[in-house]
Amino acid sequence: MRALHAVLLVVLGTGAIHCASRTGSGSRSGARPASATPSSPRQGESAPRAPSPLHAAQITAGRDHVCARTAEGKVLCWGANASGQLGDGSRIVRVHPTPIREVGDADLLVAGDEHTCMRRARDQQLFCWGQNGHGELGDGTTDGRAEPAPVSDLHEALSVSAGGHLTCARKTNRFVMCWGEVHEGGAVKVPTPVFGMTETEEIAVGAYHACARLAPPPQGNVRCWGANRVRQLGVPYFKGRGLPVAVPHLENVIQLALGHEHSCARTAEGMTRCWGGGMRCVPGEWFEGKRVAVKPGGIPGMDGVSLVASGADQACAVRNDGSVICAQERSPTGERSCIAEPIVGLSSVSGLALGDGFGCALKTDGTVWCWGKNDSGQLGDGTTRSRTEPAMVTYVRW
């Protein structure tokens, strides 16, 4: 994902928990841009009903778009759509969730900057759509697609992850295959094995790097590869690596979450550890105008968590009590410091997805709540107004 401009701790709630934003809260009017439209009826369809809450089983966020999967396997997307990343056959911005008509049995969903991928439940086949200039759709071409297309020569995918212009999948034999933009700038147009990545338990993808968690032993062993300009690989040098390298000073990892140029991990003890650069807040040193964590470090207050999520330049987590906290940069005495602050109004959260300047939370009742930047309708509330408070995503049924 591209770096999240300083908006996201717009993300950090209401009241006293505000963070300065370049766009500011509510900086855009309620009028939709010319390219924005709500879900519209197709030929032969009746007039719309009043908006009703969207109920989802999973959510994922790209740079400026969001997709959700329902318990029945349907996929709905909203937000920016210039590259066809919403998969509805158009390139029209949608301010409400719009269904992908041909999809009815999805069981896994991920998003990169401007592309989206899903797994089909019945045969574990992967389908992707959206931008494809770097081969991120894995269909052997660089042609963009506004509707789902199968990934070439990849069957029985156990899991999949996407970020930036890169996509990776774990096969049922737990080998890792990747396709899309590599850190040298080249394009890999079909799934290609990552050397040495066997017995993996999890993969996570950033904008130009990826990480995998290996099966024990050793417990929680994490290896990363790709770009390393701001130490996002967690190793003590700045050169990128085409082959995976072990991240030192990191143990007992049970979950990974990668942003544009940073990496985060959740340990078995419920602690959050982040490294790399480009985040609004990460303990570390200043390098070329960015704060860089040269090795995994904790963020004060971001512990006791059950889930970690990374956006373009932000990290948030779901605490064990179902509340959401996000890393925020403070400078009360003139010296910048990091601390985790809650997003007011969110509780009973089971899922979290962060984009570029915005975030969405999935509650245990299936409702989806989004906040932050909304210039492309990525909050899914029927407007293009940015919000400091989470608003419920509504679905216009036709």
UniProtKB/TrEMBL annotation:
**UniProt region (Disordered), positions on chain:** 21-52
- Record-linked Pfam families: RCC1 (PF00415), RCC1_2 (PF13540)
Provide ranges: composition bias, Low complexity. Answer: 21-42
Recorded protein name is Uncharacterized protein
**Phylogenetic classification of the source organism:** Bacteria, Pseudomonadati, Myxococcota, Myxococcia, Myxococcales
